[in-house]
Amino acid sequence: QVQLVESGGGLVQAGGSLRLSCAASGSIFSINVMAWYRQAPGKARELVATATSGGTTNYADSVKGRFTISRDNAKNTVYLQMNSLKPDDTAVYYCNVDGVVLRTWGPQPQSPYWGQGTQVTVSS
Question: Is the pLDDT of residue 1 over 90?
Answer without folding.
Answer: no
